Automatic annotation (TrEMBL):
<dbReference type="GO" id="GO:0016887">
    <property type="term" value="F:ATP hydrolysis activity"/>
</dbReference>
<feature type="region of interest" description="Disordered">
    <location>
        <begin position="557"/>
        <end position="590"/>
    </location>
</feature>
<dbReference type="InterPro" id="IPR003593">
    <property type="entry name" value="AAA+_ATPase"/>
</dbReference>
<dbReference type="InterPro" id="IPR027417">
    <property type="entry name" value="P-loop_NTPase"/>
</dbReference>
<protein>
    <submittedName>
        <fullName>P-loop containing nucleoside triphosphate hydrolase protein</fullName>
    </submittedName>
</protein>
<dbReference type="InterPro" id="IPR003960">
    <property type="entry name" value="ATPase_AAA_CS"/>
</dbReference>
<comment type="similarity">
    <text>Belongs to the AAA ATPase family. BCS1 subfamily.</text>
</comment>
<feature type="domain" description="BCS1 N-terminal">
    <location>
        <begin position="73"/>
        <end position="276"/>
    </location>
</feature>
<dbReference type="Pfam" id="PF25426">
    <property type="entry name" value="AAA_lid_BCS1"/>
</dbReference>
<dbReference type="GO" id="GO:0005743">
    <property type="term" value="C:mitochondrial inner membrane"/>
</dbReference>
<dbReference type="InterPro" id="IPR003959">
    <property type="entry name" value="ATPase_AAA_core"/>
</dbReference>
<keyword id="KW-0378">Hydrolase</keyword>
<dbReference type="InterPro" id="IPR057495">
    <property type="entry name" value="AAA_lid_BCS1"/>
</dbReference>
<keyword id="KW-0472">Membrane</keyword>
<keyword id="KW-1133">Transmembrane helix</keyword>
<keyword id="KW-0999">Mitochondrion inner membrane</keyword>
<dbReference type="InterPro" id="IPR050747">
    <property type="entry name" value="Mitochondrial_chaperone_BCS1"/>
</dbReference>
Length: 590
């Protein structure tokens, strides 16, 4: 008899096994067949794998598939192997080549770019991209170097004022050859957007590569070929510099990417030293001192004595006596660039000043213009009122002939020893005395620069700023003396008169002597006399006819502030009664 047990229904095994079961039931060791669960895992991890697999299927003979599908299959294959190829390439590059990385704000980067622009970008027919940088240069008749001539747009103003553009290697990679050796030039960059130029600090991108840098690479394990190439670029720059000086400004538009965006740059024809009318012995002494400072012997001396390798001059005197012009001519003579800081613009803080100094190359002339007008006066102790200029001379400067202006009002002394006047100035100028001292010779400040401070009234400066070690030479630039008046006459009128009006050299000598006798000694600045001679349009007889009337009319007039090194386009607006020449808009010290 059948018992109840026989009634119990036993569930039948599923006819269609679940996918999971099927997967796990699959034999693992069938030769030549990849288990499905492994395929699943792979396609989940790399979706491209499945696409690739499907297209490969279509490629098999007998499989119907259009040409497009075949093409897509190849493309998918490429996509799949590309990461592996990238790693392989990185490995091979690492194993077979050497490289140097140059931060973009380093002067070496500019030298390499200049060489690239001239030898690769400018010459190759294959160049399809370049970075164009404007330089707004004033051509004073000197020859511009090849690099600047690559793209020149004359604005038609008589051919003397031209807007220059420089053509630099763009961001990206470029292979080039030096002799039989290939090099790879890569320029990387990101911009923060604050300045048109890249930021000062280098940053790494998500692949760990340095941004805002130039990377040079070549075949082999030695760095020597790369070092030799960098030296070639340096030599090219020095050789090519003949005839031009790059002037960098702390203010103005057109930030220079090679200074971390801190400086604006303009290319100028070199002002020759013999165009500066000043005491010849004084000039020779300064030139000799600066040359000696950059000699190997002097570098050794500084190193042996453990003295920071720096030199400082203070040029002082009335406006328009050639302080800035001489600084520029000296930079041209030393074949280095000049960096101009104008603290009086009020847009430079202690931090910015520090960054400006950090971006300086090792060899350069730095000019801090009109330092007294920046408001960094002498720090006064509590209860000490400022003394009127002319009654004290704590810096050891004689101050003959300098207009002292209205007598100083006693300043209100504030708690903490600062008076209201100096506090007010600090607020306006944002640079403090300690910030300035820190920038010019703090621990982080670059060595190798020649610092020139210009001042109309050095007596109001703090002694800390002018002490020996910071200022090694104090030079007075005075008003025109007869010998300099002759020189300026011959230079501005004589040369042209001989060349175009047919005057003889002896005649010009005689005219110059007469002219200098008519210009009272130590009364006018060279800039004033220069402007008068310009108005005579190269006619020596006209100059002699009109000089007496000009002396009477001009004597007693306070010389106008001249020679701002801010380029004319960025300079101050001219007043209605300003004559262009008189304003210094054209006579910017070069
Ligand atoms: N000694 C000089 N020799 C030749 N040119 C001079 C001389 N002094 C001034 N000049 C001319 O006068 C103009 C202004 O000169 P510069 O800017 O060098 O004067 P500065 O003393 O620096 O004036 P500031 O104190 O206003 O800066 C320039 O065009 C320059 O050519």
């Amino acid at each position: 008899m059948a018992g109840p047990m026989s009634e119990i229904a036993i569930p039948a095994p599923p006819t269609t096994p679940s996918t999971e079961l099927a997967l796990y039931n699959e034999p693992l060791d069938t030769p030549g067949v990849i288990p499905k669960h492994l395929k699943r895992a792979a396609t989940a991890e790399y979706p491209l794998f499945e696409i690739l697999q499907r297209f490969l299927l279509r490629l098999q003979p007998g499989n119907a598939g259009g040409e497009l599908e075949k093409f897509l299959a190849v493309l998918a294959l490429y996509k799949a192997v590309a990461p592996a190829y990238r790693h392989f390439k990185i490995f091979i590059t690492w194993a077979l080549t050497s490289q140097v990385t140059i931060p973009e704000h380093d002067p070496v980067a500019r030298e390499v770019s200049t060489w690239m622009a001239s030898h690769v970008i400018g010459k190759s027919m294959m160049t399809r991209g370049a970075m164009i940088v404007s330089t707004n240069s004033m051509d004073h008749g000197g020859s511009l170097n090849m690099f600047q001539q690559m793209i020149t747009q004359d604005n038609g103003a008589g051919g003397s004022d031209s807007s220059e553009t420089q053509c630099l290697p763009p961001i990206g990679k470029r292979v080039f050859w030096v002799g039989f050796r290939p090099f790879l030039f890569s320029r990387t960059g990101v911009s923060t957007g604050r300045h048109p130029g890249p930021p000062m600090n280098n940053v790494l991108d998500d692949k760990g590569e340095v941004q805002n840098a130039i990377v040079l690479r070549t075949i082999g394990w030695s760095l020597q070929p790369l070092k030799d190439f960098v030296k070639t670029c340096h030599d090219f720059k020095v050789h090519n510099k003949t005839g031009t000086t790059t002037v960098y400004f702390s203010s103005g538009s057109g930030r220079d990417p090679y200074t971390g965006g801190e400086w604006s740059s303009v290319v100028k024809a070199v002002r020759k030293l013999d165009t500066i009318d000043m005491d010849e012995d004084l000039k020779a002494d300064l030139v000799h001192d600066a040359e000696y400072y950059y000699s190997a012997e002097s570098k050794r001396f500084f190193a042996d004595c453990g003295i920071p390798y720096r030199r400082g001059y203070m040029f002082w005197g009335p406006p328009g006596t050639g302080k800035t012009s001489f600084s520029a001519a000296l930079a041209g003579h030393l074949k280095c660039d000049i960096y101009i800081i104008n603290l009086a613009t009020g847009d430079i803080s202690d931090g910015r000043l520090h960054r400006l100094f950090l971006a300086l190359p090792r060899k350069c002339v730095v000019v801090i213009e009109d330092i007294d007008s920046a408001g960094i006066g002498r720090e006064q102790g509590p209860g000490e009122a400022p003394k009127p200029p002319g009654t004290e001379n704590t810096n050891g400067f004689p101050i003959p002939g300098i207009p002292t202006g209205p007598p100083f009002l006693p300043a209100m002394t504030m708690p903490g020893g600062h008076n209201a006047q100096s506090n007010d100035r600090r607020k306006r100028n944002m640079v403090t005395l300690s910030g300035l001292l820190n920038a010019i010779d703090g621990n982080a400040s670059a060595e190798g620069r020649l610092l020139i401070m210009t001042s109309n009234n050095p007596d109001i400066l703090d002694e800390a700023l002018t002490r020996p070690g910071r200022i090694d030479k104090k030079v007075h630039f005075g008003k025109l003396m007869p010998a300099a008046a002759q020189g300026i006459f011959k230079r501005l009128i004589g040369r042209a008169a001989i060349a175009t009006l047919g005057f003889m050299e002896e005649q010009i000598e005689a005219f110059a002597l007469q002219f200098s006798a008519k210009v009272p000694a130590d009364t006018f600045t060279p800039a004033q006399v220069q402007n008068f001679l310009h108005s005579c349009r190269g006619d020596p007889e006209k100059a002699l006819r009109e000089i007496d009337a000009w002396v009477i009319a001009t004597r007693g007039k306070k010389p106008k502030k001249e020679g701002s090194l801010v380029p004319p386009k960025q300079g101050r607006e001219l007043d209605d009664d300003d004559d262009m020449m008189d304003s210094g808009a054209y006579s910017d010290g070069f």
